[in-house]
Amino acid sequence: MIQTAESRYNQWVREHYRFLLRSAWALMGSRAVAEDVVQDCFTSAWKHRKQLRDPALARAWLFQIMRRHALRHMAPPHLALDDDLPHASDVVADGALDDQLDVVKALARIAPIHREVLVLFYFDDMPTAQMAQALEVAPGTVLSRLSRAREALRAALHPTGAAAAPSPAAPRLRKV
């Protein structure tokens, strides 16, 4: 069966949109900006689709493109998180939701270079080798960035320096 260009594009969006949106939202801290970034990503990717030599590596290739667009849209780190997230006054006292919001807020406070490795590794379960390709760095560099990112996230979650027990919503740190 011969697929039309439109049906191939639609399949691509179905397969990768959620991954890219989740990643962009975690990187940007704003759903609205993340949607713009992902739309720009798909536009660029489709325009240059012949550059993708191995369809099995589409996810890493799309992440590279999305990351470049995200860097162009990057907001200063002092801006508040997206309005789509519930405000503290709107949230019913729910410890798990509070912990999840704490992690999201902590991610917004750390450097983008740290945020992206944490998002790829913990939220998207991307293997280290694929992360290296997506970030255009050596696998060893991914591992060192991941180590530094974990420390940065711990510091952002516990700014007083007190080593608290990890919350259930916090990313579980696993050995690589």
Question: Features of this protein?
Answer:
mainly alpha, 176 residues, globular
Structural description of this entry:
The chain is mainly α and 176 residues long. The chain contains 7 helices and no strands. The protein is globular, with a radius of gyration of 17 Å. Helix 1 packs across helix 3. Helices cover 63% and strands 0% of the residues.
Quote the distance from N terminus to C terminus.
42 Å
Shape: globular
Q: Sheet bearing the most strands, described?
A: none
Radius of gyration over C-alpha positions, nearest whole angstrom: 17 Å
Question: Oligomeric status of the shown chains?
Answer: single chain
Order of helices and strands: HHHHHHH
What is the helix content?
55-70%
Mean pLDDT: 77
SS summary, helix count: 7
Low-confidence stretches: 77-81, 85-93
Which helices and strands, and how do they pair?
Layout: H1 5-28, H2 31-47, H3 58-73, H4 95-109, H5 112-123, H6 128-135, H7 139-157
Helix pairs in contact: 1-2, 1-3, 1-5, 2-3, 3-6, 5-7, 6-7
